[in-house]
């Protein structure tokens, strides 16, 4: 028997001596082919680690995908400074608004707002209010980005 197989046999006999049964330590049937046993177990461990490492990215990707496909955002332009959140919510009453209405005062003195909507169907409802009047103001509604909403919602 070569030195490698002797070492493996010695290692397994020491390792398994404290065990109460063969099933607990997953011992090979014989030690004559210890190198093959080690290779098989190494492959099994690598496969298990690979599966564990691949689960988290899949879950994260699924969550990100759901966020992207659910929430939608709109920008309302043409607002005046006397328009408030209640006015916007009444104007878009049946449009599934989620969270705060964010107001933006632009450098040129005009005002806009960003609104988060529940999903794509709510976005389509809201876009039907494009070029309608809110308190005698001609309002332009267009789809906005999540980043714009978050940027202005943090301030």
Defining key terms:
single chain; 155 residues; alpha+beta; 5-stranded antiparallel beta sheet; 5 strands; 51% helix; 23% strand
Brief account:
By secondary structure, this protein is an alpha+beta fold. It is 51% helix and 23% strand.
Describe the structure.
This protein has helices at 3-16, 22-25, 34-70, 85-91, 120-127, 146-154, and strands at 72-79, 97-105, 111-117, 132-134, 137-144. The protein starts with a helix and ends with a helix. With 155 residues, the protein is α+β, with helices and mostly antiparallel strands. A five-stranded antiparallel β-sheet has the order 2-3-1-5-4, sandwiched between helices. Helices cover 51% and strands 23% of the residues. It is built from six helices and five strands. Mean pLDDT is 76; it is low at 19-25. A hairpin with a 5-residue loop joins β2 and β3 (111-117).
Mind sketching the topology for me?
Layout: H1 3-16, H2 22-25, H3 34-70, E1 72-79, H4 85-91, E2 97-105, E3 111-117, H5 120-127, E4 132-134, E5 137-144, H6 146-154
Antiparallel strand pairs: 1-3, 1-5, 2-3, 4-5
């Amino acid at each position: 028997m070569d030195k490698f197989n002797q070492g493996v046999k010695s290692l397994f006999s020491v390792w398994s001596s404290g065990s109460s049964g063969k099933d607990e330590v997953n011992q090979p049937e014989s030690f004559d082919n210890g190198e093959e046993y080690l290779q098989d177990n190494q492959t099994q461990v690598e496969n298990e680690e690979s599966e564990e490492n691949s689960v988290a990215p899949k879950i994260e990707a699924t969550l990100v995908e759901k966020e992207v496909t659910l929430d939608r955002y709109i920008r309302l332009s043409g607002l005046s400074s006397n328009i408030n959140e209640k006015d916007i919510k009444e104007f878009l009453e049946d449009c599934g608004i989620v969270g705060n209405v964010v107001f933006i005062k632009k450098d040129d003195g005009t005002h806009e707002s960003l609104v988060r909507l529940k999903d794509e169907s709510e976005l389509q409802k809201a876009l039907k209010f494009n070029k309608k009047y809110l308190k005698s103001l001609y309002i332009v509604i267009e789809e906005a980005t999540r980043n714009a909403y978050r940027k202005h919602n943090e301030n």
